Amino acid sequence: MDVEGKIALVTGAASGIGFAYATELLRNGAKHVAILDLASSNGEESAKKLNAEFGNGKAIFIVCDVTKAQEFEAAFTKTVKEFGGLDIVINNAGIMDDARWELEININLTAVVRGTLLAFQYMGKDKGGKGGVVVNIASTAGITPAVYFPVYSGTKNAVIGASRSFGHPFHFEKSGVRVLTMCPHITHTQLITEGADRALIDNEAKDQLSGYMKTLSMQTPESVARGVIKIIKVGENGSVWMVSDGEPACELDIPNSPVKKQKA
Questions:
Q1: C-alpha to C-alpha distance for 25 and 61, rounded to whole angstroms
Q2: Residue 178 CA to its chain's centroid (Å)
Q3: Helices (H), 108-168
Q4: Helix (H) or strand (E) holding 137
Q5: Is there a contact between 87 and 134 (Cβ–Cβ < 8 Å)?
Q6: 3-class DSSP assignment, residue 35
Q7: Cα angle, residue 83 at apex, residues 80 and 88 outer, rounded to 5°
Q8: How confident is the model at residue 193 (pLDDT cuts 50, 70, 90)?
Q9: Residue 148's pLDDT is what?
């Protein structure tokens, strides 16, 4: 899909990677972008920045807590009403906070599932729409174990599994909606820089983790955003992609069936 002229909705987009997605969409010619985030965020200011750079009315901020089903659907309804349609949905909102693991599951997994179902409802050809693209944001922590954040890792594993399943031809043939997964590697955001305090470990281990995280080489949100634009344009339905160390997005080869290990 060519991004030019398209209408997009991005969750958790007031700052960080989400704001980078919104910016890159408009930079690549998107007609409009709806920024969804909490009332306590700087969403209004972020929308003003985008409108100042790309043109008045290009972006709107919609207050939305993605853990609240009615608010989430209302945000989709408002986006379609304001802009006249919807073509791209990026389910980006997420936290890395195993100390509040129930909330973490609600944001990282339940809301992504709900956002995907809403995308099918509002963009699906079988629902009167034109089809479209959903990008669900997972993490490389959904591919490899994250020892200090097992619940976070579990939610991202689940996002990959759900997205690949939603991305099966069975769903696409009816809806015309592609579902893609992006797995960013370590990226310079508050989710990472302040992550040590949110792990379910003792204070000594937190100090060790904090020191370790300061030594990590982190890519920029902008490099991840460029990767998302790429997969919107060329990604096959159900595919899973990674952006690491600021390099171009690359597709991951994940087997569709279990691979048996050879007996010794």
A1: 15
A2: 14
A3: 111-123, 150-166
A4: strand 132-137
A5: no
A6: strand
A7: 65
A8: very low
A9: 84
Mean of all residue pLDDT scores within the chain = 90
Q: Is the distance from CB of 37 to CB of 13 less than 8 angstroms?
A: yes
Give residue-wise pLDDT tens across range 105-162.
999 999 999 999 999 999 999 999 999 999 999 999 899 888 888 999 999 999 999 9
Average pLDDT over residues 88-109: 96
What is the full DSSP assignment across 201-246? S-HHHHHHHHHHHHTS--B-HHHHHHHHHHHHHHPPTT-EEEE-TT
Separation between Cα atoms, residue 9 and residue 5, nearest integer Å: 14
DSSP state of 130: -
Q: Which residue do the tokens 């990677």 mark?
A: 17
- Residues 32 and 83: beta-carbon distance below 8 Å: yes
Residue 173: Cβ-neighbour burial (10 angstroms; 0-12, 13-18, 19+): exposed
The owner of tokens 């990008």 is 135
Show the beta-strand stretches assigned E in 30-131. 32-37, 59-63, 88-91
* 38 burial type by CB count under 10 A (0-12 exposed, 13-18 middle, 19+ buried): middle
Sheet holding 7-11, edge to edge: 59-63, 32-37, 7-11, 88-91, 132-137, 177-184, 240-243, 250-251
The residues assigned a catalytic role are 152
Tokens of 180: 């893609």
